[in-house]
Hints:
The protein has 20 helices and 28 strands. By secondary structure, it is an alpha+beta fold.
Amino acid sequence: MTHAKRYLVTSALPYANGALHLGHLAGAYLPADIYVRYLRLMGKDVVWVCGSDEHGAAITIRAKKEGITPREIIDKYHELNQRTFEHLGISFDYYHRTSEPLHHETAQDFFLKLYKKGDEFEERTVEQYYDEDFHQFLADRYIVGTCPRCGHPEAYGDQCEKCGSDLSPSELINPRSTLSGKTPVLRPTKHWYFKLDKHAGWLREWIATGILDGKQHHDPRQWRKHVVGQCLSWLDGGLQPRAITRDLDWGIPVPLPGDEAAGKVLYVWFDAPIGYISSTKQWALENGKDWEAYWKGGDDVKLIHFIGKDNIVFHCIVFPAMLKAYGDFVLPENVPANQFLNFEGQKFSKSRGWGIEQHEYLEDFKDFPNKEDALRYALLRNLPENRDSDFKWDEFVDFHDKDLADNLGNFVNRVAVLTHKYYDGVVPAVDGPWQDKLEEVNRLALELGRELDNFSFKQAIQLFLDISSWGNTYLQDTSPWQIWKEDPDSLVVKECLFVSLQIVTLLSALCEPFIPFTSPRIRALLNLPPLKNGDLTGIFDQLQKGEALLPAGHRIGEAVILFAKINDRKDSSRLEIINSQKAKLEEVIKAEAARQAAQAPATVVAEAKPEIQYDDFSKLDLRTATILHAERVPKADKLLKLTVDLGYEQRTVVSGIALHYEPEAIIGRQIVLVANLAPRKLMGIESKGMILMAEDAEGRLGFVSPPEGWVNGASVK
């Protein structure tokens, strides 16, 4: 990645309607924190902004249910989420609120600038549901009814939370108002629409080729495949004007004179991303900086959005179109959107009690030493960078005990103990060259930096672990404790401890972006100050010059236990915390099983098929593959046209899963394909293969997928 003068980093504004769970942390905040901490250590001029998204119908609905005001809701969750972020080491430069006057002013200015251009908006009078008892138009979330896709009776006017389908209120069967419970009536109302469709041409070129206004803006090969795939799928479906106003009493008033805008606010999708700009403005005001240098700095600025995959279209299509329509703003250099993190094999669900929220983790693990870095590390090892991943408590234990305690912690502790035992805590002097011993370590460290530049955080932490493993192996292979018994003045022992101390010093710096609470503890053990901005640049320079990071004669501090093991025969307190989390989930499973048993139909299992011989099965050529592109088949409600990558070739497959999955939601999904099925034409499209799916008693379909990280084209037997 080429470096810029300034970096502007954003993370998706969390909705101030509830607490955030671990999936949110893994999606948009932990990766951004790692990247920003790394940039700071490299001495870069970087600003990282975020804040609470505090408008929209969902907040007013919750307020009505709880009998309090929207302000009380947003104050509660803004403070909770901000405090939790701080406790987990999420180091925003500024955490703002969209309810602040500066944001209202910024969003209204944005609207007026586009409105006055005359060709970015259009006015439409549309039929919208109206509650006659409450005398108000109903936002999508104020309308429920039966989903036309799956039959769920409590689908919202914008989405069915059972099957995940995007909906419009007019599609609902038997709609009713959540306010009065009665059937709403349709009434005309006027709204303003952003002409997103007029921007389709340059958006496609910019996303597909990286070219903007005739210049190479970015390398699209550096964007994640599922990001590009989802965007192109949206563009293939045709962009439409999007309503940017709505009838609601909670939000930013539409800044137009007269009665035509009375009772109308800016749609939350329009005002929320502008929150990145207002947050930067507030940071600049409080720090004596120029906010425009970070938003209108042209080629001198790199804008990076960290988000989850559900926000890809808004950050790669809608918001860039808004910025370019306004003029002078930079567009994102990259949008390294993560996919979703599941929890013990299922989606996070607050209503079912499945999962754990960030503040709950901090409370439940309050007696767990170094709990912040233990969580950060476990999430980092499981980041859903290119496909959905899964958080499991057993893996949390393994990552903690095997990687943090046995690998990193044990190495640092042994080196410190031996240095005090043999040399009274003083770094020994060595005779002759020692640099060749660290060639592999230096290579790994520089490669780690390149992986962070490219947003490959899982690979970067693996390289960090490889450095620690190399140090452990070097120490074990040399076995200075055996040599010292025979020769306390041995040069081999001195060189081994000197080299090992250089590795510990390097690890103390490299771990700061990943596990920032551990870095100062290792630095204190080495009797070194905490890291400052720019220190890693100096360390990399020293590595390349072959200079010692910790000079001979330097006195280190006493050894400490960095990570107390969870599986400890002498102390079960940490394991008991984990077991209590598992017990909570067992109760959820029992409750869910009881509920399903009470509601289950008489027949829940599909009828078994006739017995076959092994030779029948062996004729199937089952292969792992990845979905590269997905789009709906015109005039076929059930069909999706997919492009799948088998490693050795790409194929078109037509699959009847359109009622169960949105095209953009399955880009990047790994699947199992029947690769030797005879081609057949469906709706005029030749389909070469069949995707394996599982079907439950309710007719829901789920992908049969290989384990994470398998190569495409692997044989399934």
